[in-house]
Each structure stands twice: as C-alpha cells, then as structure tokens.
UniProtKB/TrEMBL annotation:
<keyword id="KW-0820">tRNA-binding</keyword>
<dbReference type="InterPro" id="IPR004652">
    <property type="entry name" value="DusB-like"/>
</dbReference>
<dbReference type="InterPro" id="IPR035587">
    <property type="entry name" value="DUS-like_FMN-bd"/>
</dbReference>
<comment type="function">
    <text>Catalyzes the synthesis of 5,6-dihydrouridine (D), a modified base found in the D-loop of most tRNAs, via the reduction of the C5-C6 double bond in target uridines.</text>
</comment>
<dbReference type="InterPro" id="IPR001269">
    <property type="entry name" value="DUS_fam"/>
</dbReference>
<dbReference type="GO" id="GO:0000049">
    <property type="term" value="F:tRNA binding"/>
</dbReference>
<keyword id="KW-0694">RNA-binding</keyword>
<keyword id="KW-0560">Oxidoreductase</keyword>
<feature type="active site" description="Proton donor">
    <location>
        <position position="101"/>
    </location>
</feature>
<dbReference type="GO" id="GO:0050660">
    <property type="term" value="F:flavin adenine dinucleotide binding"/>
</dbReference>
<keyword id="KW-0285">Flavoprotein</keyword>
<dbReference type="GO" id="GO:0017150">
    <property type="term" value="F:tRNA dihydrouridine synthase activity"/>
</dbReference>
<comment type="similarity">
    <text>Belongs to the dus family.</text>
</comment>
<dbReference type="InterPro" id="IPR013785">
    <property type="entry name" value="Aldolase_TIM"/>
</dbReference>
<keyword id="KW-0819">tRNA processing</keyword>
<feature type="domain" description="DUS-like FMN-binding">
    <location>
        <begin position="15"/>
        <end position="307"/>
    </location>
</feature>
<dbReference type="Pfam" id="PF01207">
    <property type="entry name" value="Dus"/>
</dbReference>
Amino acid sequence: MFFIGNVRLENRLIMAPMAGITNLPFRMMVKKLGAGLVTSEMISAMGLVLGDKKTRDYLKSHPFERPLAVQIFGARPEAMALAAEIAVENGADIIDINMGCPAKKVIKTGAGGALLNDLTKVRQILTAVRRVCYVPLTVKIRSGWAAGGTAAEEIGLMVEDCGADALTVHPRFVTQGFSGCADWDVILRVKRRLKIPVIGNGDIVSPEHAQHIRSQTGCDGVMIGRAAVGNPWIFKQILALENGGKTAAPLLSERKDLIVEHYALLSQIKGELRAARDMRGILISYTKGLPKSRCFRGAFTKISGLDTLVSAIDSYFSFLEGRSNAGDLIS
C-alpha cells in the first residue's frame, strides 16, 4: 500500500504517461495486470482550456482504472490552473505536471523540460495550480536542463515548498533526450533531501531493475514506461518478485487473449476500423522477440476488423504453439 496525498494505491508501481500509448484501453489492461496507478497521455493545458475535442477526449476514463492521474503540460500559470480544474471535473484523482518532456514541439512552447530553465515560472505554475487543485498534485522532472544547471535536488525542494504531494524524477538531463544511461544516484540525492514521496523513473526494463532502483535509491515508488509497451505483464512480474515468487513470461494463451481484449477496448473507443489500424503497430510490440514474428507482420498489416485480426493471430499463435510443443523456446 502507498499513499500520494490522500489517494491510496494498492502498490508502488506506476504506469508512466506516454503519448500515443497510455490511452484508456492500455491503461485498463495494465491496471488489470497490477499497476497501482495509471496516468493519462500528456495533455495540453491550452487544448483543454480552448475546448479542443481531441484534447478533451484524452480525459475519457473508466471506474476500473481508478485511481487515475492526469498529466498536463503548458507554460502559462493561469491556463495550467484552469486545465487542472477541468481534469478534476472529468474524474482525475491526481494532477501531474510535466516539467521534463524533451520533445522539441513541447520545448519550443516553453513547456515540459524547458521549464527547468525558468524556476520563477516553475513556482508560478505550481502556486497557481495548487491554489485551485483540491486533489493530490505531483510533478515529473528530469535531472535538470543540462549538466551544470540547477540540480534536481534544488528543483525538488522548490516543488515540495509549493505544496506538491509527490515528485517523479527521470535522471537524465533534458538535453540528453533518451540517450545515455539514467543516473539513479540523482534519485538517491533527491530522496535524501525531500520529505514528500519520490518516485524513480528511467531505464527500468525488467522486474529486477524495479527492485534494484528501490534498493539503490530508497525511492517510494517506481514508474515504468517504455518497458511496458510490449510487455504490460511487467507489473505482474514485479509484484511476483516482490512477494518472493518467480517472474514468469506470459503464456501464449495469455498473450493471445490480451491482444483480442486490447482490440475490443480500442474498438469501443475508436470504432472497429480505426482500432484495426492502431492494432497493426501494437501487434509488432506484443510479438517482438518471438520466433518468426517478422514473417507474420505482412498479415498484421492487412487487419481491417475483428475477423482478420483473429485470423492473423490464430495463424501466428498456432505456429508458436507448434514450436512450443516441439520443445523450442519461444520467449
């Protein structure tokens, strides 16, 4: 059990917000597989304030996934405050502010990681949002803008002073993007300075990494991002390891059932045809590393609905089951 403000989480595992990935169907599945907290895709504060339909659609949620954190980004304090209010009105249990995104289209607006170059603006945004936000407020940062700039510890202390309930640290500089290695010692230093919970993020690609980051840094929670895209079972695997069990790869039947479930959920939200198009890329992630997956990708690109989806995966998984019965390793 873990608390962020007054919100109770079943465990310390958090699904990171990822554009194009952490939509409602994906969040529903990782919640089912053990995530203690799921987070929306990163949402533009201005998009919410201006009433853009596509942006507002990112707020769609389901009671099963609760508690839900909604992450917003922007550079204008008044817009960020109003966006937080809109998100809470639409069911957000936690508001998370992105202050670390390295994407150029976000940086050029002065938002995301660019804010780490302007601590005055950081304080203004946090103060404005905290004033109107009655649910827990969290912030996601990086180590800083670049080496030699303001240290993550100092940024974290400001975040805490402004009333945030927790801080997530991705220990790369904004200028690094996703290159190089995450420096978990940064998380350790931040944890030693702050009283609020500190969540560790970055280069957690296996259940063992999740254990290592907690033991190495003392962080209160673990946020998992890209590793969950092709392996949403990682949450279940981490929990098994924490409980003294073994980390087992999902059975072929589990993979197959999850693919069908994912498609069904996408269809409910986007319609069958659009869901079919989205599933083509998702299937590549779900089958990455499995034998002969490249040979079946041609079939995946022809998916146009439930029938063709089932036909494609039936063909591929029958092949995998045959190899498994023959004693070949498949994972």
